[in-house]
Structures are given as structure tokens and as C-alpha cells.
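Need residues for this backbone.
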């Protein structure tokens, strides 16, 4: 059952698609105060677990820390960070009582989950204008399914998007991309996508191509397609200010950019230099921006990633002017500007909360200051694209995923988890985020495998890929200036060929489970607690996940490990994909086990009485041969496999 409570005058985020009539009175669980902003409180029982929050830091169980939904362009995902790129305000309280909470509020909102006082859950925000949904049901899993059906069906990408993708910020020319394609193909490491980062554009201008680097872009796209490789370009939120650039000229002329209070277009510096932000909350601007993707679609492109859409701001004109003034005073030894002031100003210029108060959106003729709806920007950029794709490509699916997001965006695209690091702890963080993201509708998701920032190592890439084998988005991506981490950069390339190859062997299962989850508002990744709610130990597991109804995964995420401990809530078949192409199978009883897993092996566990389809390895998704599919797992088990042509919209 879903109860909807209305406080003040909420902004219509359109996160929820179901028609739900408001309930009067106070929520059944917890208390609400609107005396000073909005504050929801619940006293947590000792054994209660709090799930949710989608893309957030720390555990699958969120208890014990503070999280703030405030879409942030922050590449330092250290343990103390309270905000990442997404705002997914769904919580699931699980214990003797269980209920879900969705706070549909588009600005900064704080989730203090036993941080200030260990048994107190406090959710607070500045304005008491929001919808609060309280969901009750027969189990945690049931509550999530109800939440999912209320927010609408998750985005479904084309099937090729379940292949492996290579990316790197730094590929510039056609020759760079051709080299990556060639290296993958000549080493027989499977691949379906190569991602194009900002350098394919002319001066980082959206919807342009650098013609010196790509003299015949269409021809190049087609050549790659003949190699069964899709090129996936990036699109950034900011539009470069440059006379004569059509996107800039049209946006300016039609008032499609976010404006300052005085009516002038707000200016922010991002990769292209000074830019304007398209007003993604203005319907007309959204349509206009979305239609621009056709510039690339008409050249054969069938997938995109939307970036810098928190929106990221290096600095604004106002910020720079303030810095200049401060600098002048500092140089003149003005005592009002002590040393540390200047340093602080410089370090807080980017993504400054002051800047988010300096521009406005035109929402159906009403001006809304950006900070009041900050968490909706990336969502609506991706919505602009998603809505346009339905017009431009009504029959065929187009791949889309975004960095910033809010609940509701899951209908238009997936997400990647942004600028992580080549750290072992980030493999585990990747794993922990996946079920939480699924709760909030983000099924097509994954992290930068191998790590984006910092220099990686061979073992780290291999171990991370062995988790990436199971994430719907499986992409290796790295930052400019870091160690090269394409699979062919390391010794014993055959190990990489094997691990990525296992992904392709499992695509019949992965695609089937993804599609079932998408079509039934279900989860692809689940915490063990959802499947074994009465098992106290399973409820607390933070480094193993269930996928679909058949399997459990327990990847290795520590350096120099030869294996790991794993908890089996029931008897399971321990499967290893061995480097010689064979598959080892061993029945393990319920309980704790130490299992050996070499660097070049991919483990999984099949639940008692279940089986999964496995194909022979292939070098691209269209080359997977259904005739090679066989079942592994328990004898006499049956698997109901979903499949389709992988491209027609459904
Ligand atoms: C941002 C993105 C990253 C990309 C870089 C350059 O940091 O998160 O993926 O490579 O910008 O475009």
C-alpha cells in the first residue's frame, strides 16, 4: 500500500508516474515537523537495517552515517563524502516493521541515519514543500517492487550495450580509435563499444565534430560498425559561448539558456571555456536540446553518455570577479583578506553553492532559482535526450547513460557511477551501490572498471572486470594522464580475453535477467537480505549479491588474495570459469567457506535447484551463437530464458 502525503506546495519533479491520491493525516510511521523547514524522524530499533539511497557512499545498509542528496561533481569518493552525483531519496526500513519512504524533493536533503544519534533516522530539508510517500508491504522486496511500479519502467538499452566497452579520456583522433579497435580485435578480446570522450568535438562544442581529426566521420562510424563496434560519444551539459556556433546562437535567440536574475544568460566555465546551460527544466528548451542529438544519430551513432550535468561549474563570471577583487585587496596588504582567505576562495570556486543561487529556470513561465531544483538538472538533460530518441528513432532503442540523476531519470537512461579511482576499496563500493541503484530503478548501471582516476595495476583491473562481468554496463574507463589500462596493455593478455569472454558466455543469462527485471519492475541485483529475509547472517552481508533468481556473486576485492570467504545461506553450486575455457562445479553446503579464486578465474554460485544458460565465448554480442547455449547448475532444473531481437523498442 502506498500513502502519499503533501507538504506545502511541492515542485512537480515528475519522478512518480502513477496517479496516487493524497492521504490526509500524519504518516503511519515516524513523525513529521514543519516548524523549521521539513523534518521527518523515526526511532530505529536496534536490529533495523536501512536500505536505499541509490548512488550513495558506504554500505548496502546505510545506518551509521550522513548522506546528503545534492548532485555533486566530486571525483574524490573517499569514505567521508556525503554527496555523489545522484539524488535518489528512497529509503527502506527493514526489521520487525518494514516500510519504504520516498521524499520527492528536488533540492538538497539530508539523511542522518543514526549519525548524530545512533537510533535516530532524521530526514530534513530547508523548505517544507514536498511529497512524502510511505510504502508498506509484505516484505522488503515487495515494498521495492511497489516503489518501482510507482515510478515507471526502467530504461531498456539495445542488446549490444551488454557487450564490453573501452573508454579513455585522451583518445583524440580517428587513428587513436582505430588502434583501440584493432588491438582488441587482433588480440581476440571481445568488445562491442568504444567511447568517445570530449576530444572528438570541435573545441568541446556539443553536437560538433573536429573535422581535422575525423575527416569522414560517417565513413568512420560505418567502418567501426562493420567491425561490430559502436562508437558512443559523450555530450556535456554546457554550451560554448561562441558567435556563429549554431547551438549557441539558437539557444540565445530563443531564451533557452538558464538566466540570471537580471535576465542575462548565466555564464559558467567548463571544458569549452565559457558556456551557457540549456534550461533543461523548460519544456521547449528540452525539446530543442534533445533534437540536437540527431546531428550524431543521423551519422550512424546509436548511443551516448551525458556528462557534467550536475551541472558541473569550474567557476562562474561572478566567482572569478570575487576572486579578482579579493586578490587585489590581498596584493595591497588589505587586512580584510588574510592568507588563508585567498586559498579558500580558490578551492571553493568550483561547484560553489553561491553559483547555484545565481541562475534560474523557466518552468512553465515561472522563474525557479536553480538551487531549489538542483537535483533535477541531469535528470532533465537525459530526459531531453530520451524524449527526443522516441521521435528520432521510434523503432530502435538508443543507448544512454548519465552521470547526474534523480529518481525518474531511470525511465530515460542508465547511469555510471562517475569518477572513481583505481583503488581496491572502489571495487567494493561499486558492488554495494548496485542493489541500491536497482531499488531506485537504475538497472543499466556500472562503474568505471579498472578505476578512472589514479594509476591502476594489472591485478586490480582483472579483479574489477570479474565483478564487471555481471554489471549491465561493463566499461573500462580512465582519466587523462593515468596509466593506460586497456586490456591489451598488460602481460598475459589471454587472462583478459578469458575474463571478458566470460561476460559474453553469460550474456544469454544477463540479458534475460536484466529484461525480466526491467519489464516487471523487478531488481537485477538484490542484497541477500531480500532473498533470505529470515537468515540473520544473510541480512548483513555487504560483499555478495544475488542476480536474478538463480545466482549469487562474491567477487574478490582485495589485493594479493588467492580467494575469499563467502557465506552461503543455502546449499549452492560453486562455479568457476577457468582460463582453459572449462567450467568447474562443486556443491557446497550452506555456511561459511573459504573459496580459492585465481586472478584469471570468474566465480559464481548457482542456487540449489537452479540452472543458467551459458554460451560459447564470442567477440561481439551479435556473434553469440544461441546454438552453443547449454545449461549449467543443478540437473533437472529449468530456466525460463527471455530473449528478443535486442533492438526493437518494447
Ligand atoms: C568527467 C567525466 C569523465 C570524463 C571527463 C572528461 O570527469 O566524469 O568520465 O572522462 O569528464 O570528459
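Answer:
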Amino acid at each position: 500500500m502506498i500513502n502519499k502525503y503533501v507538504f506545502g506546495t511541492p515542485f512537480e519533479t515528475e519522478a512518480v508516474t502513477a496517479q496516487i491520491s493524497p492521504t490526509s493525516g500524519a504518516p503511519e510511521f515516524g513523525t513529521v515537523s514543519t516548524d523549521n523547514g521539513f523534518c521527518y524522524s523515526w526511532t530505529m530499533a536496534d536490529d533495523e537495517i536501512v536500505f536505499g539511497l541509490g548512488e550513495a557512499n558506504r554500505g548496502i545498509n546505510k545506518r551509521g552515517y550522513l548522506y546528503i542528496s545534492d548532485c555533486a561533481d566530486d571525483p574524490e569518493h573517499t569514505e567521508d563524502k556525503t554527496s555523489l552525483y545522484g539524488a535518489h531519496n528512497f529509503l527502506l526500513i527493514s526489521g520487525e516493521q518494514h516500510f519504504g519512504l520516498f521524499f520527492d524533493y528536488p533540492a538538497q536533503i539530508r539523511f542522518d541515519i543514526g549519525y548524530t544519534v545512533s537510533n535516530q533516522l532524521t530526514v530534513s530539508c530547508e523548505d517544507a514543500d514536498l511529497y512524502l510517500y510511505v510504502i508498506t508491504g509484505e516484505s522488503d522486496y515487495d515494498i521495492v517492487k511497489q516503489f518501482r511500479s510507482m515510478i515507471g519502467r526502467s530504461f531498456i538499452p539495445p542488446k549490444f550495450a551488454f557487450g564490453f566497452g573501452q573508454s579513455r579520456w585522451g583518445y583524440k583522433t580517428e587513428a587513436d580509435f582505430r588502434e583501440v579497435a584493432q588491438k582488441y580485435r587482433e588480440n581476440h578480446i571481445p568488445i562491442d563499444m568504444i567511447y568517445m570522450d570530449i576530444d572528438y568535438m570541435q573545441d568541446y562544442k556539443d553536437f560538433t565534430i573536429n573535422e581535422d581529426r575525423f575527416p569522414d566521420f560517417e565513413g568512420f562510424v560505418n567502418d567501426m560498425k562493420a567491425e561490430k563496434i559502436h562508437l558512443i560519444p559523450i555530450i556535456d551539459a554546457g554550451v560554448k559561448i561562441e558567435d556563429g556556433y549554431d547551438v549557441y546562437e539558437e539557444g540565445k535567440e530563443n531564451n533557452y539558456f538558464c538566466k540570471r536574475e537580471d535576465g542575462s544568460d548565466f555564464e559558467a566555465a567548463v571544458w569549452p571555456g565559457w558556456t551557457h546551460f540549456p534550461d533543461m527544466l523548460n519544456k521547449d528548451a528540452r525539446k530543442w536540446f534533445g533534437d540536437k542529438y540527431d546531428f550524431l544519430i543521423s551519422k550512424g551513432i546509436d548511443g551516448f553518455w551525458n556528462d557534467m550535468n550536475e551541472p558541473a561549474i569550474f567557476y562562474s563570471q561572478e566567482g572569478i570577479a570575487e576572486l579578482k577583487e579579493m586578490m587585489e585587496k590581498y596584493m595591497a596588504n588589505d587586512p580584510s583578506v588574510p592568507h588563508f582567505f585567498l586559498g579558500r576562495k580558490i578551492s571553493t570556486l568550483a561547484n560553489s553553492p553561491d553559483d547555484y543561487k545565481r541562475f534560474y529556470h523557466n518552468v512553465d513561465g515561472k522563474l525557479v532559482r536553480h538551487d531549489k531544483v538542483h537535483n533535477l538538472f541531469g535528470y532533465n538533460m537525459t530526459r531531453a535526450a530520451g524524449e527526443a530518441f522516441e521521435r528520432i528513432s521510434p523503432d530502435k532503442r538508443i543507448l544512454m547513460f548519465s552521470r547526474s540523476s534523480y529518481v525518474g531519470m531511470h525511465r530515460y537512461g542508465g547511469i555510471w557511477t562517475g569518477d572513481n579511482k583505481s583503488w581496491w576499496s572502489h571495487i567494493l563500493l561499486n558492488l554495494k551501490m548496485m542493489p541500491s541503484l536497482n531499488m531506485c530503478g537504475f538497472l543499466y548501471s556500472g562503474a568505471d572498471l579498472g578505476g578512472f582516476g589514479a594509476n591502476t595495476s594489472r591485478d586490480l583491473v582483472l579483479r574489477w572486470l570479474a565483478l564487471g562481468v555481471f554489471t549491465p554496463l561493463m566499461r573500462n574507463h580512465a582519466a587523462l594522464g593515468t596509466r593506460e589500462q586497456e586490456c591489451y596493455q598488460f602481460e598475459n593478455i589471454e587472462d583478459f580475453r578469458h575474463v571478458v569472454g566470460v561476460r559474453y558466455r553469460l550474456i544469454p543469462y544477463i540479458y534475460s535477467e536484466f529484461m525480466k527485471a526491467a519489464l516487471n519492475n523487478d531488481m537485477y541485483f538484490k542484497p541477500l537480505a531480500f532473498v533470505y529475509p529470515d537468515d540473520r547472517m544473510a541480512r548483513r552481508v555487504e560483499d555478495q549479491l544475488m542476480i536474478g533468481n538463480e545466482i549469487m556473486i562474491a567477487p574478490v576485492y582485495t589485493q594479493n588474495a588467492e580467494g575469499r570467504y563467502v557465506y552461503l545461506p543455502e546449499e549452492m553450486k560453486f562455479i568457476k570459469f577457468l582460463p582453459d575455457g572449462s567450467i568447474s562445479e562443486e556443491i557446497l553446503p550452506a555456511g561459511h567457506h573459504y573459496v580459492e579464486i585465481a586472478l584469471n578465474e570468474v566465480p559464481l554460485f548457482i542456487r540449489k535447484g537452479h540452472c543458467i544458460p551459458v554460451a560459447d565465448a564470442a567477440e561481439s554480442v551479435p556473434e553469440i551463437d544461441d546454438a552453443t547455449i547449454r545449461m549449467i547448475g543443478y540437473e533437472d532444473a529449468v530456466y525460463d530464458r527471455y530473449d528478443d531481437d535486442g533492438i526493437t523498442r518494447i
